Amino acid sequence: MLDDLTTAASSPTAWPAAYPQGYAVVDVETTGLARDDRIISAAVYRLDARGEVEDHWYTVVDPQRDPGPVWIHGLTSDVLEGAPLFQDIAAEFATRLEGRVLVAHNAVFDWQMIAREYARARGEAPVKQRLCTIALSKELKLPLPNHKLESLAAHFGVVQRRAHHALDDARVLAEAFRPSLRAAAAGGVRLPLHECRPLTEWTDGPRTGQQAGHGGYRPTSWRPSRKRPACPYPNPGRYEPGKRIKQGMRVAFSGDTSIERDLLEDRATEAGLHVAGSLSRLTSLLVTNDPDSGTSKVVKARQYGTPVVDEAAFGQLLGDVEPASED
After folding, report:
1. For 88, how many CA atoms within 13 A lie in the half-sphere containing its CB?
2. Distance of alpha carbon 118 from alpha carbon 110, whole angstroms
3. Contacts of 134 (CB under 8 A, 6+ apart)
4. What global pTM score does this model have?
5. What pLDDT, on the 0 to 100 scale, is given for residue 6?
6. Inter-residue contact 245 to 239 (CB < 8 Å)
7. Do the Cβ atoms of 129 and 111 come closer than 8 Å?
C-alpha cells in the first residue's frame, strides 16, 4: 500500500504554495484520558511537504505510575520496566516534531498530552500548528460511517495490523493522511490548521483520600493558577439565537478549538459565564466547531434543544455580554 501511495504522491500536480513544508504524524498511547495521565508510548512518521514518508520513530515511556487500561494498549508494568522516562526522550521527540505540523486523529488530545509531558519536563514541544485528520476528512466530505481511525483507514484501503499500538496507529494514519493531503491539494482545500500554544504552568500536588497509593504515584495539579471560581451570577436560562449572551449562562464546550480550550474557557469565565464540564438541561449554550461529531455533548444538546454555536460565533458573543440582572 505504501509503495502505491508513494507513486501516486509523486505524480505532477499543482501544489498550494500556502501548504506546510512538512508534517509529523503522531500517535501516543496513555494511562488514561485525564489531565494528570501520562504517555506510555509514542510514535512519529515524518512526511515532507507533499506527504512522502521520510522516516519513522517509536518508543515506550515509563509513566512512573500504573499503566492504566492494559487491555487496550497491551503495555503492562513488566513491559514498561526499564523504559526511559519522558524527560529522557523529550529531546529526540522534539527533533521529530520541530518545524512540522503535528498531524493526529483527534489532534487536540494528542497535542495536549504531549504539551503536558513537556511542561512536566520543564520544556516546550516545538510545535506551532496541528492538523486533525477528523477535521480534514470533513473538509474533504469523505463518505465515512463515523470518525474512527479504522473507518478512515478502510476508506483508503489501509490495513491496520495492531490497533492501539502507537507505531501501527501512526503508520495507518500516515497512509490515510497522504491521499487526503493530495486530494486537498488537488481541490484547493484550505487545510484545517490550528494553533498550538505550549503549556508551561505545572506544580506537583498531593493525592488525597481514596486516590492515594497506586504504586506511589502522585498526580499533579494542572494549571493551578487557572482554577476557576464559582460563577457569582444566577443562570438566566437558555441562550436565544440572535440575542446577546448574559452573565450567569452555563456554557459547555465540545471538540477541537483553534484557541486552546483552557484559554477559551478562561475568557468565558472572565466574561461572567459559568463554564460547565458536562451538558445538562440547564446548559444555556454548547460551543462546538463540529456539530455532526456525535459526541455525548452534541447528542444531548440535540435531545434537550440546547442552542449550538461555533467558536467564531462564540468569540463574537463574548465581545458583548449582557450584565446579570440586578434583583
Report:
1. 13
2. 12
3. 105, 106, 107, 147, 290, 293
4. 0.66
5. 42
6. yes
7. no
